[in-house]
């Protein structure tokens, strides 16, 4: 059976079946994967606890689906094409056989270093093939990986390591991103001061910057691989995993507290990532597929590693950034590797668009047949530029809406099969049952309506729990509206029934496609010694989508305003990472609060958006005068 839907009529038929007979539908999809033992029960669920289990009783290892099963027919086919940060360095190609062998080899390294099934492993690495190898080796041995994006600070890494009690860290000496050399191992060393559970650190050589290596704890990747070679351990029997065993934890921000560890499990996640990859991108054998995300985010997990590899695709991994050495770099990569499918983010599109069309001159983009967008709403201007200048009007654009928690794409066109509409994620994929609700949780039916986006039936790739705190999973996603998964997104359904995601309705910002909780940024700002209080909101930003605007009460400054702003920004960089650094910091003498002490963010949001004329009712404020002061000082 082919996973791919090939016409709109087929989409409608399959979608209907997936809603009427979801278990049979997913049975059929899951049958196309490799299982050591098939499942006894397709689905068990309730959204109350929540308790969601797919393919119970089944045994598998996802790496056999991503590697072993392709060896016979496609062993010599490129699995990963890697493009380095510096265009003058050599690129690398790993065939399925080579990738398989390296994953087995590194699984042996993990075993030699005491890793067992169920152990949690933190991975903090640059975008090199060894990152994918590390991830897959964890999955092979049944260890649970927790990849942390290279832009997070030592404190953020420590929080994540502690939350999951990781026993081992895999990192590199340093990494290259554009003109910068990122001292990854040093950041890890700072993090580990707080992390007694970590017994071993495996360090890959990448930038060969000076690093401290602690006896008994730190070992070099290359030395460990040599040991395995000398021992002759070149194979590694994939650990037999239950479908509902954990595959990985990925931390993401919500509207309250510290980031939560979203848990995905082996069977359902595999089926969902593979199915959605095959369909949305309509991947054909031999095509070169380039997803520009970082493996530190869910997009990299599902659509650089697991989805494409499970389908035997050629996935291109890029170490660098879109603007290095210049803003034509993506197009050079497309040209050089004859890329057929390009999956990127609106923020990258807007940024490259702003450099002008000169950057496209002389670049051969004729191999492109399909384009994709993810991570935030794409504005119409960027959509049209992408369509005309990059796709030359003949590449369908799949605007894919989904989340860390959903594991894979949920609402999206199917390339060339279903219609596209600028700035619309369009229609739900088979198996996905979206609905809109009002604030009271009442379903909003019909078309030409807006509301809060929920999902009413489970799908195999959905979040199972938040690591170590199931109650948090319930309150964050399943408690707002009874018997529904709440996405946190606002959404419009137009007259044709097409969905357009309008952005978060909770206190989560989307800055350059990165999810940032305002509460988290406030906590970080408040750690600065002279800050009394702060409130963070988003504001529209031409390139980043949203910028971070901080209102800060800081009566006694050490130095002038500008220096204090820099100190506060540095504090945020230290506590969370540079990605959360405020773009604007306005000093205020107080925050607009209700008599019960609640900050009225609605007012602050309007001021940050530059919309000061109509602030709505301010009479319930404790001190309405503070609003006038904030308005006049707005940046
Ligand atoms: C937003 C990224 C509009 C949305 C895969 C969601 C989008 C959050 C789109 C999840 C899209 C993602 N159009 N908004 N195509 N895709 N979003 O967990 O607000 O990093 O809730 O997952 O990004 O971000 P996350």
CATH homologous superfamily assignment of the domain at 508-632:
ANL, C-terminal domain
Number of helices: 18
CATH class label of the domain at 508-632: Alpha Beta
Portion in strands? 15-25%
For the secondary structure, the number of strands is: 31
Q: Could you name the ranges where pLDDT drops below 50 across 5 or more consecutive residues?
A: none
- In whole angstroms, how far apart are the ends? 58 Å
Global morphology:
globular
Specify Rg, calculated over alpha carbons. Answer: 24 Å
Which percent range fits the helix content?
A: 25-40%
How would you describe the overall organization of this protein?
The structure is a single chain. The protein is α/β, with parallel strands linked by helices and 635 residues long. The protein has a domain at 508-632: GMP Synthetase, Chain A, domain 3 (2-Layer Sandwich). Helix content is 32%, strand content 24%. It has 18 helices and 31 strands. The strands form eight sheets. The protein has an eight-stranded mixed beta sheet, sandwiched between helices. Strands 5-4-17-16-18-19-20 form a seven-stranded mixed beta sheet, sandwiched between helices. α1 crosses α2 and α3 crosses α10. The chain is globular. The relative contact order is 0.10. Bound molecules: 5'-O-[(S)-ethoxy(hydroxy)phosphoryl]adenosine. Residues 252, 297-299, 374-377, 399-404, 425, 487-489, 501, 503-504, 510, 515 line the site of 5'-O-[(S)-ethoxy(hydroxy)phosphoryl]adenosine. The site of 5'-O-[(S)-ethoxy(hydroxy)phosphoryl]adenosine has 23 residues, from α10, β20, β25 and β26.
């Amino acid at each position: 059976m082919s996973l791919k839907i090939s016409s709109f009529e087929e989409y409608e038929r399959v979608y209907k079946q997936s809603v009427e007979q979801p278990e049979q539908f997913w049975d059929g999809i899951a049958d196309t994967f490799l299982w050591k033992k098939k499942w006894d029960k397709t689905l068990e669920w309730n959204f109350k606890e929540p308790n969601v289990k797919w393919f119970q009783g089944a045994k598998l290892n996802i790496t056999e689906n991503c590697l072993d099963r392709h060896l016979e027919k496609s062993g010599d086919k490129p699995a990963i094409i890697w493009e380095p940060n510096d265009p003058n360095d050599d690129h690398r190609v790993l065939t399925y056989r080579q990738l398989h062998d390296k994953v087995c080899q590194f699984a042996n390294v993990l075993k030699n270093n005491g890793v067992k099934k169920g152990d949690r492993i933190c991975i903090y690495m640059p975008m090199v093939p060894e990152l994918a190898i590390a991830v897959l080796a964890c999955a092979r041995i049944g260890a649970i990986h927790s990849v942390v994006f290279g832009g997070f600070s030592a404190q953020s890494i420590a929080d994540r390591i502690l939350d999951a009690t990781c026993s081992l860290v895999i990192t590199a000496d340093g990494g290259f991103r554009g003109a910068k050399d990122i001292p990854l191992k040093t950041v890890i060393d700072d993090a580990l001061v707080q992390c007694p559970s970590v017994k071993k650190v495996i360090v890959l050589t990448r930038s060969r910057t000076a690093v401290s290596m602690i006896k008994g704890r730190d070992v070099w990747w290359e030395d460990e691989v040599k040991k395995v070679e000398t021992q002759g351990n070149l194979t590694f029997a994939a650990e037999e995993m239950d479908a509902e065993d954990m595959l990985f934890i990925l931390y993401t921000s919500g509207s309250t507290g510290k980031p939560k560890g979203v848990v995905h499990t082996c069977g359902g996640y595999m089926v969902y990532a593979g199915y959605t990859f095959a369909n949305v991108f309509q991947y054909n054998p031999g095509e070169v597929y380039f997803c520009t995300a970082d493996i530190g985010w869910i997009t990299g997990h599902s659509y650089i590693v697991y989805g494409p590899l499970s389908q035997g695709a050629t996935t291109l991994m890029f170490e660098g950034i879109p603007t290095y050495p210049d803003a034509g770099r993506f197009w050079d990569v497309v040209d050089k590797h004859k890329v057929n499918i390009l999956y990127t983010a609106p923020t990258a599109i807007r940024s490259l668009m702003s450099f002008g069309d000169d950057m496209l001159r002389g670049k051969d983009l004729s191999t492109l047949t399909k384009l994709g967008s993810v991570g935030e709403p794409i504005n119409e201007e960027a959509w049209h530029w992408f369509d005309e200048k990059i796709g030359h009007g003949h590449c369908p654009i799949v605007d894919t809406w989904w989340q860390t928690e959903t594991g894979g794409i949920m609402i999206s066109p199917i390339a060339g099969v279903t219609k596209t509409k600028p700035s619309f994620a369009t229609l739900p994929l088979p198996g996905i049952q979206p609905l809109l609700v009002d604030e009271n949780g009442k379903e909003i039916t019909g078309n030409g309506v807006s509301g809060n986006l929920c999902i009413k039936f489970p799908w195999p790739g959905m979040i199972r729990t938040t690591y170590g705190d199931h109650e948090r999973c319930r309150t964050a996603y399943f408690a707002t509206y009874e018997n529904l998964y709440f996405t946190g997104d606002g959404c419009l359904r137009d007259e044709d029934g097409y969905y357009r995601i309008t952005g978060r309705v909770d206190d989560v910002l989307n800055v350059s496609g990165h999810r940032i909780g305002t509460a988290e940024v406030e906590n970080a700002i408040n750690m600065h010694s002279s800050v009394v209080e702060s409130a963070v909101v988003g504001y529209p930003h031409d390139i980043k989508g949203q910028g971070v605007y901080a209102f800060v009460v800081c009566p006694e400054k050490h130095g002038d305003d500008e220096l204090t702003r820099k100190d506060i920004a540095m504090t945020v960089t230290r506590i969370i990472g540079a990605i959360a650094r405020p773009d604007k910091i306005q000093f205020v003498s107080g925050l607009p609060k209700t008599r019960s002490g609640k900050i009225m963010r609605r007012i602050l949001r309007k001021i940050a958006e530059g919309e000061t004329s109509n602030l709505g009712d301010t009479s319930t404020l404790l001190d309405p005068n503070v609003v006038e002061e904030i308005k006049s000082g707005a940046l």
